């Protein structure tokens, strides 16, 4: 066993990370520094502080990172219109780098020599945490208890908890019917009752949205304002990034928006089935694309579309802090300075409908595109030459292949 | 003026192409062969034959191409999950190559030396028609009256029609409030009342769908079966391609599915605003992706996603018959042989919700992904090495950059 | 004829652009401002000034742009390792945007309302000039005499010159046996004696290099130092960009380096055959790649390789000033800050052989890669897990396809 | 220890794989089936058979796979003009899938339950072998002795050999000064004396080529004929794939062609330095590109260039049998049917100079490209419209950004 003095643990305050906390103390005889972040998961943080104290921790970090999360992670990603496998808005993936970064910073502040996360050995999150650690501190020791410890079942864990005076509430004794991750961008549910992809999810898994069927039979009109590619106001009212996303989450929730049931390909090589809810993110994504449609040049827009799948894959696979993600981000950010203006949307029973876009930076020119007299803004005769030269290579080819 | 003997005209039977017909006769003193195709636009074809006869045509082609259209154009495109600029299902674009191909074949059958289309000089369709002609017959003469003729206004056209005994119904005297294109995959509306992208489309433009708000407050469950990447059955009933798409159009129509209001970038260099309705295509697109999510390997799926924007751009720009589109098609088709199984969907007021997928070719293995005991199907210790070597370059980099 | 008052002409001082100058004066009755730049083409500039004066010009711009050319155009392009169609170093393409930019700036300084270039209607240069003009001044009038004027043959031109007191030297009376473009990066030759791609170029076309066969039978060892991705010193001696490229040109010339005979695809749709000489650029390109091989992370390097063909195509096609080229440049530049160190090269009869690379920013770690004992720097057992998870999807696939 | 009955070993007959053979027998008590292939590495195979017999093997496979290797692996890869990291012709990478495939086939023929290779735990070859195994038989047990066994040094291995009656020749007692892999496409050298990338390789590492300096001061003219993208004749004489490559290797060797000294990025995450010699492959690569330059449409050629880095990376990383490599191959092969004709080359002291290309399928049309009168084959006026519409979006952008 490596000789460790201090370990920074990503700590939720829940039963599982409390067991990890104790196991670290027992196994390594090391001091454990807990780090609990509010990323908008919707849970109280103070209980986590109390529990860490109770478990004997002296250095306890509890932080509200919601604004950082949205400003420096969610919004930059949204500039790319990132979708993994065509549909997934990357809600879990994008939170991991921030947690990894703060853990490493706290390790440096506290002189810790190791970091620890509570992700399992089958999922993507272990990769995302550990690639983040690797990129930010190449020497730090990494502990992944779920891959390493001796426990074989839920029963073993509960027994360990009891033996170590960790309180176990009744409902935690058995296995949860599915596993949940949540932050300000989304909530994900996986496992157990969701493991047959032929069967629709039970309604119990949904936490952030009501069903489209249950949403009011009434359209809600909203507007989002953008500046330099980021959302800055809702219905004309200026808002900070996290405030805006929180408000959109409420709107999305109420209108049954942002549910996704999918089978996806994990980086570790298997397919899994997940149910995601991204109410505000779904609205924001649609609005951002609509804003770009008016203000982004075609060359920039199409290049972005071609780069996007790679960019999304990098985030999904945990390479947020890689040079290639940073290169793609540089390209994307370069395109966003004039993505500015207002998008109006109709929200209705699961639908996000663009109803208008306007911008001081619009590239749409009615005087050119009009079916009416354009006063010479566009010479239709140009099209003949344009087509003939675009077709020249095809004619030469056809001529050969005759 | 070039000396032409016979011209094959893409003829709808409407006022505009009738004016073109007469103008070709007058201008070139040439015989005009009309070609009228049923691509599912929802109009009677026999009136076009009668009108062509009345205008003195001797060779008149009227053809039902719906099955060919769906089988050889729509379905191959759908295998790619093609979306132009992230959202547009390419309903107009994909019809043009088939029309161009038949025109050229008819030109060869009838010994014609020219082909003619009725697309304007500002749009994409002129490019799509003429690149198709170029690729299929490098020597054929191409006539695009809207770019060439002397008429300056609607009034000029109506006067020409009157002078030439072309019947003009009352409602055609003025300009239409917007311009429409339709086929079995979609209906598009552009121009006039739609020219301000800040203003939502008037409900009058919608032709193929009712509004989500007007759709019944009741979910409709359906299933689509796929084989080798193509839809083969609806609700367990085997159907030909066009029959399947027709049935999906009805379902989409009734449930308010497939409306799209967007600003897009035309190949000729301007932005335009269009309203598209693709009821059945929207359902089919969602179903196809869901089928792939279960049966396609990650490497294949991600490569497809990366190639898709280019593929969609090629179709949008009119390069269906280009070698590069054929290369991409070869790659895409190579991936589809095991895209087989059943997708169940819930249709509800504009929503297309995947509720299940199953397949004899499924790559989803519950025994590997399960949160439960997997009996050794996956060794979590492997993840440690996997992550360490994926992170090795990042650690070396971090080590340098310290 | 448009009413023009002042035209900025890209003027070489040669016979052809002198004819253009006069033709502009005659045709438009406009004042002509000449712009003659030293981009390293190896010609005296003062005669151009004299000739312009003689032809009645009052505003005459003669500028040495060699440093700007290399620093702001050649080096940024070289950061991308740009090769068009796998082999061409884009020597002509990269000079056009700078000329276009200065023409537009001069137009603004002098209040001119038009710009004019001397490129023909079949080539790429007309596109590069005019897309540059379009991106920098959307309203400026563009004149391309070779596409517009009435002259049909060399004889017509010579006659026009004689009638207008433009001196015609004996050797310019007939057509040149091939056409040449040159700047500090390269020299290109096209046309006439080169038009049969089955026949090797006559030795007369080569202007910048001796043949490998004629080069000394003796190796020359050199070193190039890089900093932030750009060359900064030769053989340890710090040099400005243009000085460095000039010195490399001499070395390349003397050692028979940088000849290229190719068939390429022009943007206007045809294939052409060109002979290019890029002596210094070829050496620099090899050195830059070698420097990157030591200092660039794999993720960055591979992304650059994937983006490169598109980047090169954009430059070749004339889209230097487009948003998408700027996006790609942002990505590329982001990767270059640690491309620093020394590359040693052996030059010998056409060969550029990398003989060593070293860097304070090296990512090569002998202690990891060594066949010898690595003291635990790399755990070979990690590879087992790495491979098993990389192969997991392939095993699942094989399992299905049995 | 897993219970194994029969293991198929990739056996060279050398000391190291003989030690492995014995170690497998001792460790697993299993029967070992040896597989020794002639891939053109230039060694006698019969000694391997004798040695396997002597070591007690009963099932011994010795096969000449040179034609299969070139026809089904090298040539398909060359159709893509594949270069890893811009320069490496993938000579080692491309041989591994074939060996893996034959091992699995032999395992099935002989009823073996495991396969074994002799690659180390730091390199790419272990990945290539094992991903091949995974894709071809998901259940087969894989043994990688270099990662698993207890030996810590060369001395341990030699002692094991002595104890087990494996003959050890004098020169094998110590460590080799570098490690070599060879086949008909190339020879690679790595490690030990090559581990400092700042120092040029000693001449002793080169095995397949003489130095350009030592090559005759005399040009050699050759021609290669292609059909459907593959080489079919040398100097007009029809040859099988392996015969052609063998002949080109001789020509390359004699003219000092195909040496490469590089730092590359391994899939397992580290940089390594290698020296490669690919004499015939280098000539073939240049010739294939030249043949394509004449016969391949621009759209196809540029798409190939964009796909190539990914394709090369897949082969380098060992994903030959992956769906995505097969998709890319389908796209590439689709493009090759008219890559046909003759390329003439001048070989001279390390240089491969294209001196001509001709083809019945040429797309080069002198009558269009000519500087002379083209009799109307190309209308220069078309270029004006072509440029104006290509520039339209740039003008709109400039107009906005004013």
TrEMBL record, chains A, B, C, D:
GO CC terms in record:
cytoplasm
Q: Which residues bind ATP?
A: 10-18, 37, 118
Q: What Enzyme Commission number(s) does the record list for this chain?
A: 6.3.4.5
Q: Which residues form a coiled coil?
A: none
SUPFAM superfamilies, A to Z: Adenine nucleotide alpha hydrolases-like, Argininosuccinate synthetase, C-terminal domain
User: Which GO MF terms does the UniProt record name?
Assistant: argininosuccinate synthase activity; ATP binding
Every copy of the Arginosuccinate synthase C-terminal domain together lies at 178-396
The UniProt entry lists the main location of this chain as: cytoplasm
Entry binding sites for L-citrulline: 88, 93, 124, 128, 179, 188, 264, 276
Q: Which UniProt keywords apply?
A: Amino-acid biosynthesis, Arginine biosynthesis, ATP-binding, Cytoplasm, Ligase, Nucleotide-binding
Domain Arginosuccinate synthase-like N-terminal, first and last residues per copy: 6-167
* Reaction(s) catalysed (UniProt annotation): L-citrulline + L-aspartate + ATP = 2-(N(omega)-L-arginino)succinate + AMP + diphosphate + H(+)
User: What pathway annotation does it carry?
Assistant: Amino-acid biosynthesis; L-arginine biosynthesis; L-arginine from L-ornithine and carbamoyl phosphate: step 2/3
Give its localization: Cytoplasm
Q: Where does L-aspartate bind?
A: 120, 124-125
Please list the GO biological process terms of this entry.
argininosuccinate metabolic process; L-arginine biosynthetic process; urea cycle
Task: Please describe the quaternary structure of this protein.
Answer: Homotetramer.
Q: Which family does it belong to?
A: Belongs to the argininosuccinate synthase family. Type 1 subfamily.
Protein name (record): Argininosuccinate synthase
Tell me the gene name: argG
């Amino acid at each position: 066993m490596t000789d460790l003095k201090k370990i920074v643990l990503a700590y939720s305050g829940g039963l599982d990370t409390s067991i990890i906390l104790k196991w670290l103390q027992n196994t390594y005889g090391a001091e454990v520094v807990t780090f609990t972040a509010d990323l908008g998961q919707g849970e109280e943080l103070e209980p986590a502080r109390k529990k860490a104290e109770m478990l004997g921790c002296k250095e306890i970090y509890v932080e509200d990172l919601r604004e950082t999360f949205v400003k420096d992670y969610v919004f930059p990603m949204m500039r790319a219109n990132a979708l993994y496998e065509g549909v997934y808005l990357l809600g879990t993936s994008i939170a991991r780098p921030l947690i990894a970064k703060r853990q490493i910073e706290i390790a440096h502040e506290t002189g810790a020599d190791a970091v620890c996360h509570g992700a399992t050995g089958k999922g993507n999150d272990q990769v995302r945490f550990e690639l983040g650690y690797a990129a930010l501190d190449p020497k730090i020791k990494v502990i992944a208890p779920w891959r390493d410890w001796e426990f074989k079942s839920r029963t073993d864990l509960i027994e360990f908890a009891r033996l170590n005076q960790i309180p176990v509430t009744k409902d935690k004794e058995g296995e949860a019917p599915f596993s949940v991750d949540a932050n300000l961008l989304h909530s994900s549910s996986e496992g157990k009752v969701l493991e047959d992809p032929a069967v629709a999810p039970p309604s119990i898994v949904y936490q952030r949205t009501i069903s489209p069927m249950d949403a009011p039979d009434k359209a809600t009109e909203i507007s989002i304002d953008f500046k330099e590619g980021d959302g800055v106001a809702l219905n004309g009212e200026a808002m900070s990034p996290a405030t805006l996303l929180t408000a959109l989450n409420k709107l999305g929730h109420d209108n049954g928006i942002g549910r996704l049931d999918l089978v996806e390909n994990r980086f570790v090589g298997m397919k899994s089935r997940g149910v995601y809810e991204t109410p505000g993110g779904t609205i924001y994504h649609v609005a951002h694309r609509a804003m770009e449609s008016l203000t982004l040049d075609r060359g920039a827009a199409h290049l972005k579309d071609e780069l996007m799948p790679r960019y999304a894959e990098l985030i999904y696979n945990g390479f947020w802090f890689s040079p290639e993600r940073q290169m793609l981000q540089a390209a994307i950010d370069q395109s966003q300075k004039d993505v500015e203006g207002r998008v109006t949307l109709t929200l209705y029973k699961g639908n996000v409908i663009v109803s208008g876009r306007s911008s001081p930076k619009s590239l749409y020119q009615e005087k050119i595109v009009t079916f009416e007299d354009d006063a010479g803004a566009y010479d239709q005769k140009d099209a003949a030459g344009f087509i003939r030269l675009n077709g020249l290579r095809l004619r030469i080819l056809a001529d050969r292949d005759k």
